[in-house]
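seq:
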Amino acid sequence: MNIELRDEILRPYIPNALGKSLSRFRGLPLDVLETLVAHGFVALGKWNRCAGVDSLFLPFLRRHPEFTAHGYAVHKDRSDCRITIEGVECEKPMTDETVSDFTNAFSLHAEEARVSPSYAYCRFD
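struct:
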């Protein structure tokens, strides 16, 4: 796995310097997430109460590309140098249909979910 490539792709979405154990990112658009998935950097399967990137986040982001993903990448010195997507968010006005789709997709199982006509955020732990 080319960790330097992973970190280069993620760097614009990490608000602080790369962390010692993990680096949190936000604002990751669909096309960048798909690039990371294509390179095998993203943990795709189900975990805890989250249905997984393949079945939950990617389909939603494809329907609503105005949303972005957030999560973390573990440090390159760990054996499992994965990227975990913890949720999605949007800070733009949304249609009633988008708000409804977000609510239906995430409100029941996410540890945290907030939604209004101009803001939506969810996080899985």
